[in-house]
Amino acid sequence: MPNIKSAKKRVKTDAKKREMNRTAISSMRTAIKKAKIAIKNNEGKDEAVNNAIKLIDKNASNGLIHANKAAREKSRLMKANK
User: Mean pLDDT over residues 34-44, rounded?
Assistant: First the structure.
């Protein structure tokens, strides 16, 4: 445990950021899974894919995932949606 006041504050802010990042990543993964299921069942697939792509782009712009990973995931979804 840190002794310096600013380090104590940093521990708190890091914990909040970590939780927000985990939530964002988790919701992105869930959206990707839902899009894959929608493509497989051929029901509401365009909306599900668009939602997943939106979340992928958002997380990539915030630095939560690498840009190449975002491009790869989007490419796979769009290819499967054809």
Answer: 93
Report which secondary-structure segment, H or E, holds 44: none
The answer to whether the beta carbons of residues 56 and 70 sit under 8 Å apart is: yes
The residue among 61, 82, 55 whose CA lies nearest residue 73 is 55
Residue type, 8: K
Per-residue pLDDT at 82 exceeds 90: no
Which tokens sit at 38? 């929608």
> Residue type at 65?
I
Give, in order, the Cα–Cα distances in Å from 24 to each of 5, 20, 27, 31, 71: 29, 6, 5, 11, 17
